[in-house]
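Notes for week 9. Today we move from apo structures to complexes. The key idea is that a small molecule is not decoration. When we ask for a structure prediction with magnesium ion present, the ligand SMILES becomes part of the input, just like the chain. The input block below holds both the sequence and the ligand string. Read it once before you look at the output, and try to guess where the molecule might sit.
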Amino acid sequence: MSPSNIPFNPILTADDVVVDYALQGRSETFRALKGVSLSIGEGECVGLVGESGSGKSTLGKAILGLAPITSGRISFAGADITHARGAARRRLASNIQVVFQDPYGSLDPTMTIGEILAEPLTVSGTSTADAKKAVAEMLDRVRLPSASVDRYPSEFSGGQRQRIAIARALVRRPRLVVCDEPVSALDLTTQASIIDLFIELQRETGVSYLFVSHDLGVVRRICHRVAVMYRGEIVETGDGESVTREPVHSYSQRLLLASPVADPARQAARRQAWLKLRGAPEPAAAVR
Ligand SMILES: Nc1ncnc2c1ncn2[C@@H]1O[C@H](COP(=O)(O)OP(=O)(O)OP(=O)(O)O)[C@@H](O)[C@H]1O
Ligand SMILES: [Mg+2]
């Protein structure tokens, strides 16, 4: 997606965030984020790409209050939420939501879709009648039949389950959704329709996304800006088009060359370029 012309009002800012995980049975810790700074504007989709283990999910977890933050600061709508816990964190849940890769694992199989979607509303004090109305509206928005309310997650396909997970994330009208590889488990056609749904919902509601993906094609389609992570650091940020088509940092270039293309001749040329780059030293972080 081309850069948006939305005025930049940060809804979320991460400033020099460091996360250290305790290693079981050992005294030393593992530094998964080494001082990450990133901002997400209102109504913006920021992509986070990088190889497995680079720290993408950890940054998402840090925003959701699920990772041990050693230092740095995370602000949401101007308020410091770095160490928000308990009641403060529960209040934030109406504004910051998450969609994971595996919708089946995150949907309670013993609850109907109606119950799954109403729960976040009723626990925060919405009346049953209002919750029912909001659930029907939400199902319509994610293009699921209204009769879905009486069915269970196991009765839906992977793509439909992801629609349910998206509906659940959006039912409280959050301002930010952390999407952690939300289309990676889906086939290409389903992927495309779920990406279109994310784009449409963003247009309708003005919600912001942090969109984690290892697929540059997906990120190019949906994100206004992209950040590239490498070993716990952001090595490059820029608009979606240029970072995914003409990356500056050699790691981002390798990431691009490692993503497959259909044409065998182009694929062979990319492989040669990738092999050449593999030994190249890392330049300083590129930010544009
Ligand atoms: N709870 C934990 N305890 C210890 N180390 C962890 C924990 N969670 C993640 N890590 C480590 O932190 C690093 C970053 O993990 P993270 O899950 O953020 O990577 P990722 O970029 O999301 O990878 P993937 O693309 O495979 O999902 C990895 O080396 C991982 O092994
Ligand atoms: Mg991950």
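The chain has two domains: 1-95+175-244, 108-173.
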